[in-house]
Amino acid sequence: MANETEILQWLRQGNESTQRLIDLKWKITKAGGGYFLESEKVPFTLQLGFLGEEQLLEIKLDTNIETATMESRDRLGTYRALLILNSQIKKVKFMLEGLGENVVARADIDLPTVTKDELDNSLSLLLSSLYLMVRVLHLEEEFNQQIVERMLMLVKELQAKGKNEKEIVDYLVHDVGFKDEEARKIVSELVHDDMRGNERLYG
Fold this sequence. Notes:
Elements: H1 4-12, E1 27-31, E2 34-39, E3 42-51, E4 56-66, H2 72-88, E5 92-97, E6 102-110, H3 116-136, H4 140-160, H5 165-176, H6 180-196
Antiparallel strand pairs: 1-2, 2-3, 3-4, 4-6, 5-6
Helix pairs in contact: 3-4, 4-6, 5-6
């Protein structure tokens, strides 16, 4: 069983040349009962919490999308989309937090059995789910470059593990929640755009 100190050490020891999220060098800032995680390679701040009573490791990502200020119709549409995503995605859930009712993505890991690979997989799922949320809510313009760069990192990481294109598509479909046709399109475009400077993903 990995304890809090060991898990934080995994995150501190990395370097910026890796494609694996767990092996990046994270800047860790203690905040209240948890930690903020920041990396030059990831354009979002992650929140890490150790829930002792539940024996859970909680990872959250605040999208900074405020729903409290939305018009009623837009707010209901957003809630509906998030509920559908929650039924599609394994191990990651979207919720609302704070006075602004911000959209937050959350993944929980059982602390007694957590491994370094499992934590890496949860980090990848969390950020991949954000990509799916952006597409469902039609927020590509706001998040385009940030999300494309992260998804490209994920594809490269899976390739480095020896996964072929079909296996990467299967991962996006079965673990992240993409439809098969969309997953194939994403993988194809990301791989080809990597060769051409990421110029075409959203037309």
